[in-house]
Amino acid sequence: MTELAFIKLHRSERLAWVRSHGEYLGSRGHGGHRVHLYRLDGFFAEVWMRIGLEQVEWIEVARNAEVLSEYVRIDVRL
Predict the structure, then answer these.
(1) Do 25 and 68 form a contact (C-beta atoms < 8 A)?
(2) 10 Å Cβ neighbour count for 35?
(3) What CA–CA distance (Å, rounded) separates 45 from 63?
(4) What span, in angstroms and rounded, lies between the C-alpha atoms of 34 and 51?
(5) pLDDT tens digits, 7-63
(6) Residue 31 Rama label (left phi>0; alpha psi -120 to 50; beta)
């Protein structure tokens, strides 16, 4: 599926696609949400869940390199 086709899907369809075709990469906190990053065919998607509710509020394509870098944790200790 292309990024544009993914964007046109309803939230429930996006979630089903992420669950069946996405590769989980990591999570981050943002305000009252836990955000999970998935790699799909040629793009990344974030699944936003409100903390304490375990309910998906929205799913969006992640394009911003600064946001994507928040998922990277580097331990520089040797």
Answers:
(1) no
(2) 19
(3) 9
(4) 6
(5) 999 999 999 999 999 999 999 988 899 999 999 999 999 999 999 888 899 999 998
(6) left
Instruction: State in Å, rounded, how far the first CA of the chain is from the last one.
Output: 41
Sheet holding 55-62, edge to edge: 23-30, 33-39, 44-50, 55-62
Enter the pTM of the model. 0.84
CB atoms within 10 A of CB 70: 15
Containing 20, the helix (H) or strand (E) segment is helix 11-21
Among 67, 64, 48, which Cα is nearest to 56's?
48
